[in-house]
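Standup notes, structure subgroup. Blocker cleared on the flavin mononucleotide input:
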Amino acid sequence: MHRSFREILNILDDKGSLVRIKKEVDPKYEMGAVMKQLEKEGKAFLFENVKGSKYPAVGGLFTSMDRYGLIFNEDASEEFTYDQAGQKVLEGVADPIASVVKDNGPVMEEILRDDKIDLLSMPVPTFFELDTGPFITAAVGIFRKPDGNINVGFYRCLIENKNHILINASGLSDLRKSYNWHREEGKEMNVVMVLGAPPALLMAAASKSPDHVSELDVAGGMIGKGVKVVLGPDSGLPIPIDAEMAFETKVDLNNMVENTLGEFGAQYGTEHAPMCEVTSILKRKDSMFYTLMAGRAKEHNNLGYLTVYGMSTMLKNRIKDTFPCVSNVEIHFDTKIGPLMHVVIAINKSSDSQPADIIKETFEINMGSFNLAWMAKRVIVVDDDVDPSNMDDVEWATWTRMGRAEKVHLFSNFVTWEIDRAALPDKTSLRVGIDATKDMDYVEDLIRPIVPGIDNIKLEDYLD
Ligand SMILES: Cc1cc2nc3c(=O)[nH]c(=O)nc-3n(C[C@H](O)[C@H](O)[C@H](O)COP(=O)(O)O)c2cc1C
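Run returned:
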């Protein structure tokens, strides 16, 4: 059981959770400002009258995790947890199903070429005051990797002019690897950017699947059948047949251009991305432009949590397997405290040197092409009477169990992910280890006051 992008919009409309905005809005700042206000209300939106554009703009479909329930729950209930969403993607990774190629589909209803291509007529918001220009934020990019596999991911795109965009690839992305390979080999590269992709594919695109598994097939596994696609007339790349629009592009890897957007970690990010020529636009006759609020925004961040779900699950197991004294681990990836991970490890401590060793070894865990320090800002070690998933509890332990300066470990030699915008020119940035465990001398003293039997009390037994 699964629902399409349009089916979900219709359900939200029926439930009164879709707001139609008829008043003209300026895509420069005004549209983003309205989107941000609607996010607080949890409303999806349809801008019917965006200045300078004949296309409606939709978004705000997945501003909470429970909304993913609309994709998979038979009764369209909005009940879904982060774990369910992450597990759903992992099921797709474990049992991928290949896409099915069709000759035609709604996304082929109109094909625009040459002078008909006018990206400046699209309702693309400019979000923040220092952004370089209007950004497409909700498109998934589809391309062929050097190994021949199809890759799908979210990549933000700056509109450069009526037929050129910049497609940004972070240091974590397979797109960056593919850019590098194609440049080094002098090979041509195409990327197709798709708006209004099937919702299961949005989830799969946000997540990181193993190199040999295509996110397109992961989405197939998630919905129990292959995603139906047509092949782009210029690129030969698969495009979901019921997408709203698709931009086929030819990438010029020798023309890298600087651009800046307010990012999910609530900082500006300046990147260099290749100039991509849009050679065709495939679209439905009544196509809608899908947009996601940029910056620290709920719909974006919910998808972002899926990027690290598989990695976090693997990492928790690795830490438990590596250190037998570990009773529990939690990986916090929450833009409230920045764009990088914070790892909390609860241990049954047997020596005062143990937390320092664990902190150092954890930062050095090999994650494939990088070590954990690249994307983890802080490692905190707590005693096993502290709940690592509860940051209030962790804060309490930090400020009640640290009596010596040696329990704070500072590292400035680790190379960091570029999303850490405070990085120094040599690409290193501060990493912090906190030993918030009781010193062995105080094990008998620093005991938490607990009311015996509190967990067995049922209030209803005491109330009339
Ligand atoms: C809304 C949204 C926007 C994103 N923008 C970018 C981006 O501009 N560049 C990038 O490399 N990753 C971006 N990401 C993260 C990637 O989509 C994500 O890491 C994905 O797993 C990358 O796929 P890949 O490794 O297969 O290339 C974004 C994620 C979301 C949810």
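Discussed briefly. The first strand starts at residue 18 and ends at 21.
Next: hand off to the docking folks.
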